[in-house]
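In this supplementary section we document a worked example of the pipeline. Step one takes a protein sequence of length 772 as its only input; no multiple sequence alignment statistics are reported here. Step two produces a three-dimensional model, which step three serialises into structure tokens for compact storage. The input and output of this example are shown verbatim.
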Amino acid sequence: MTAKSAAAAARATVYGYPRQGQGRELKKAIEGYWKGRVDADALRATATELRRTNWRQLAEAGIHEVPTGDFSYYDHVLDTSVMVGAIPERHRAAVEADALDGYFAMARGTQDAAPLEMTKWFDTNYHYLVPELSPDTAFTADSTQQVAALGQALALGLTARPVLVGPVTYLLLAKPAPGVAADFDPLTLLDRLLPVYAQVLTDLRTAGAEWVQLDEPALVQDRTAAELNAAARAYRDLGGLTDRPKLLVASYFDRLGDALPVLAKAPVEGLALDFTEAAAANLDALAAVGGLPGKRLVAGVVNGRNIWVNDLEKSLATLGTLLGLADRVDVAASCSLLHVPLDATAERDIEPQILRWLAFARQKTTEIVTLAKGLGGGTDTIAAELAANRADLASRAGSALTHDPAVRARTAAVTATDGRRSQPYPERAAAQRAHLRLPLLPTTTIGSFPQTTELRTARADLRAGRIDSAGYEERIRAEIGEVISFQEKTGLDVLVHGEAERNDMVQYFAEQLTGYLATQHGWVQSYGTRYVRPPILAGDISRPEAMTVRWTTYAQSLTTKPVKGMLTGPVTMLAWSFVRDDQPLADTARQVALALRDEVNDLEAAGTSVIQVDEPALRETLPLRASDHPEYLAWATEAFRLTTAGVRPDTQIHTHMCYAEFGDIVQAIDDLDADVISLEAARSHMQVARELAGHGYPREAGPGVYDIHSPRVPSADEAAALLRRGLEAIPAERLWVNPDCGLKTRAWPETRASLENLVTAARTVRTELSAS
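The serialised model returned by step three reads:
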């Protein structure tokens, strides 16, 4: 096919779409099902209607080929485990008794069976359920869900393409099951898994699939020769099947690198590449392998992870370069639109001109369709769209929101000394022990306590004008009083105020900083039924006034025990926002760090002796290629130190991280120079404690003994057992006892019971230590 005919054949598609619905109908139906208010048939009916609505929206926008299989009740990786029969033994009976309840048991756990481990999906804030595999795992195909979704789309008269997690990525994301040797490599199961994928492909072909997409984002990471050989073998075997659909192998989030020639040679009909995060690298690599003659190329030129309007002329130039490198060039977002909100037009509180800078999922589909039209018919066919796009880009570039001279001058004046504590850790530790007088194995929580219905109602009543600010603040004071009283009665050593006034750990601060925009309906799935509204970091950042001092000092007035001040760190403020793309991330991080530094100093001046600056996103934002790590970690750790280094030696700085693989960043954790770090460890059975010990981490640490992402209540014996395992790696004088994460999403009954058991466990182990 010539470049001209490839352009004329250009089609628009996407890899996935937001699942929740305009009003988060899926969340409400699932949580209603868990509470017994919604039955299984009603839940399935809600899911069916949401899928139908999504597909119709896409088709009406001009998307030529809609995705199926991207919709999930909880997580698409968990769906893949079901599809291939990789059910943990402890959940097998539940799945066999009731497939839906067993599915949710794997995700959330039960009182008798722990859930699957949860961690971040590459460098996003989406969480997936980690497959558990062993040498004895026997895979079996169950394509029921995938075939049903395809059939629903085809029945609507749509052209549909099932989207599956690819077999290589699935195995690379998996971990050894509990009790299996840590050095077991799940990739050794590839030859056992491929026939199951072959069966699923056959089932989909029989059901009417012309194309099936196999997502292999793990191949954009650094891969060994053995792993690349496994990918070559996988697609040689799957491509060699006779009764199968056409195969589109998709990659995203970074450059494909050494995997590109492997996939280019494979007997598959198409490749999908990211031309936003790694446009130049993927273009060069594609040219180096001689293009994709005879194959379909799906070009991800619209950013699927951020919300800024696309530069249409720049994207058209990229697409034009790709013509002639493939038999057919189609237009898509760089990845699933799962990672952005649904519709920007729902926002009523953002200035109309600024709103034109933004593109959520529905606007991105319009951009994709516009680019496909322009690629196929020439720029004259989209002249009006191009003119409007140029005006929107110019409006943003020239806005006073994006440039504050005072902020830029302060940032430019930062020196290396500003990011160093006044004394080394051993001297600080001695000063903090003398000042705080905490027991061995001090107990604390991560920060938030349950956000009750009453709290959410009070917040909604304030927004709606049904109560005034005085009435709202009285409710917050009462909640803080209850939280402090509970912690004192339970016997916790370092208390928190519970964050009753906070809607979200990033949004709360973003709403009080200049340069940020907040949305009302910009919900994005984080995990399961947990949705967040990432704020939009649009301009230069400063802090007009104190943000947390008032409520922290009020809580401290209610107790003689230390109350932690709670802040969200600069890297997490970036990672959990839609960050500006018009300046380097390092510059933005430095601006946020200086604003937070002012808050840290004000907390200390108000008498707060323990200040926690959470950085759960430090690991998730780590670039996917090792060669990009040093630059990122340098500015990320500098931003944390710039936030925290201005305090006295006897002020104890904590940080917190959760649900990520920490082994890759232990040195960076050390470089933060925090006095205490708390980390997720319950689901991973104290793996992080061993990683810290292996590194020789010299400071205090609290690997979690209570998994807060499950409703099950860990017994005191269970928590004590985890604590003893932690002591095998971290000396008692440096070990803290805490949950994995904040308690915002938990209910009060399970919170009370779990924290009481946590304190009992700490006391039990203290007694054992004193007797030894």
